[in-house]
């Protein structure tokens, strides 16, 4: 398993998919270290240690390369979420980028509405995202939401729900600014520390749970996902919406 993992790491490295390569190097090194512990043959141990040292050196070089890309504003990480994949709750995707200096967040998603289906309601998804911001370690003070109006009777329900979210956030010292546009189509989230995340399906990449009391209804990490792509960029100057 260790050999296969580091082989995959090398392939990704050659393809310049450095972030994914780094993860495979780290996993492969851990597996090979376990092999070393279980091996009694000293000659084999020495060969494993030599290879591990080479992989650790390359992993460290990749770390430095990624850090330089971040500093130069050229960082780009792509996550491909496969159909029915689990383990991709909001904390998994966003927590790494919600550093302590984050105080302002911009959310652009045209479909923060659909209150007629609680299990697929994007208003609830947005609320869960806000809860993630409240838990920290970031110190968010302002959230800007740009979305579109719901249609028909759904509009009044949408406004009521957003008002409740706004009032609830104010109890935690967070201001929610809401704007509406009939022409937006992009879905992206920006933090004022320079991170920008674009998700093909926006916050609505989770499948409908089988029932109100089925696993995954409350914990998004356990809920199957729709296939989508997440692109993560780092820029020195965050463009505000």
Automatic annotation (TrEMBL):
Annotated coiled-coil positions are 45-72
Q: Which residues form the MIT domain?
A: 1-71
Give the highest taxon in the source lineage. Answer: Eukaryota
InterPro entries per the record? MIT_dom, MIT_dom_sf, MIT_domain_contain_protein1, MITD1_C, MITD1_C_sf, MITD1_N
- Keyword field contains Coiled coil: yes
Q: Where is the signal peptide?
A: none
- For this UniProt record, give its keywords in alphabetical order, as a comma-separated list: Coiled coil
**Does the UniProt entry include the keyword Coiled coil?**
yes
Q: Which Pfam families match?
A: MIT, MIT_C
The record ties this protein, via PANTHER family, to: MIT DOMAIN-CONTAINING PROTEIN 1
Q: What is this protein called?
A: MITD1 protein
